[in-house]
Amino acid sequence: MSFLSQTLARVKPSPTIAITGRAQELKAEGRDIIALSAGEPDFDTPEHIREAAKSAIDQGFTRYTAVDGTPQLKQAVCDKFARENGLNYSPAQISIGTGGKQILYNALMATLNPGDEVIIPAPYWVSYPDMVLLAGGMPVIVPAVMENGYRISADQLEAVITPRTKWVILNSPSNPSGAGYGAAHMRALTDVLMRHPHVWVLSDDIYEHLVFDDFRFVTPAQIEPGLKERVLTMNGVSKSYAMTGWRIGYGAGPELLIRAMAKLQSQSTSNPCSISQYAALAALTGPQDYIETSRAIFQRRRDLVVNALNDCPGIVCPVPEGAFYVYPSIHALIGKTSAGGTKIADDEAFATALLDETGVAVVFGAAFGLSPHFRVSYATSDAVLMDACARIKGFCEGLR
């Protein structure tokens, strides 16, 4: 009998974390490595947020809090949803977790029974299917191909809903593609969901503020108020305020679900870090100018990377609506051989050879459920991005 749980055997470690770790190992060995695999802003947390955390320590706010967040932070989240999304919630409908990932995990663990289905458009954030599997559910993957802007259609959604469907996960703008669902696309999906009252919606809005050009962010409960009582809207401070390491996420939804999530959290991690909660409070209630400053920088970087990658032989890189990723196609490169002798049989082989031969770390598309592609995170300096893209171009030019 195996010592380890059979449930654990259903899931795999995060590929993005694995690739980032491999890049760090090579760098420690003295290799010239450029890691474009991690999904976090390269900016410092804004000063007023850091000062709020220091003040919280000095005032002794270092004890346990309510299991799923302080009343002050919950109210700030309510105010944020009302101010930015036109959604009204009470503090009893808010859950504060140790990062957005815990909000998603708690929701799935609290609701899924064996055999329940969860619809996940691909490409997807790598953790969605594995969290569903850990909770005993079945991921139902729906391809959102490049030709359709990496978005699923209403017809695709309608076709995969069954009596066992419990959730559909929507992530806009998306990790890894940066694709966003505008009002018309979102309305088409919510119209389908209104016809299936047993299906709940898990909306991952973590990249809400990182949108470009004339794209306007919308969230499902905002587009269709009739869905609000079966939508969990997840967000957090990690991407918008450069607070990835602070580990604060939040969710808003029906009180029945929020209570169930709190029950689960009370027996797992208990409350999120008290200091991080005070920092998040400062982020949501303090000056918001950082958001526009960082958004403009990311848009410039997006344009730099899209233009550079489209100049690489065999790479096609669409222009994303948001986040800080691009998800180019390498369809034309499959079957070629690299200058170092590696056969590019798939996107994993491409990413492996690229790292070994040029020192550029990217994440292969199969990790996100849609091949042949790769993901680049452009959350780093212009100079580093230009160097990385030049290496990628040289690699592609060397393929035969």
List the helices and strands and how they pair.
Elements lengths: L14 H14 L5 E2 L11 H12 L12 H15 L8 E4 L2 H12 L5 E6 L4 H8 L3 E6 L10 H7 L4 E7 L11 H12 L5 E5 L15 H4 L7 E6 L12 E4 L2 H12 L7 H12 L3 H22 L14 E2 L20 H12 L1 E2 L1 E2 L9 E4 L4 H16 L3
Task: Describe, in plain words, how this protein is organized in 3D.
There is one protein chain. The protein is an alpha/beta fold and 400 residues long. The protein folds into two domains: 8-44 and 290-397, Aspartate Aminotransferase, domain 1 (Alpha-Beta Complex); 63-285, 3-Layer(aba) Sandwich (Aspartate Aminotransferase, domain 2), CATH 3.40.640. Helix content is 40%, strand content 12%. It is built from 13 helices and twelve strands. The protein has helices spanning 15-28, 47-58, 71-85, 100-111, 127-134, 154-160, 183-194, 220-223, 255-266, 274-285, 289-310, 347-358, 382-397; strands spanning 34-35, 94-97, 117-122, 138-143, 165-171, 200-204, 231-236, 249-252, 325-326, 360-361, 363-364, 374-377. Strands 2-8-7-6-5-3-4 form a seven-stranded mixed β-sheet, sandwiched between helices. The longest helix has 22 residues, at 289-310. The chain is globular. The model has no long low-confidence stretch (mean pLDDT 96).
Describe this protein with a few key phrases.
400 residues, alpha/beta, Aspartate Aminotransferase, domain 1, Aspartate Aminotransferase, domain 2, 13 helices, 40% helix, 12% strand
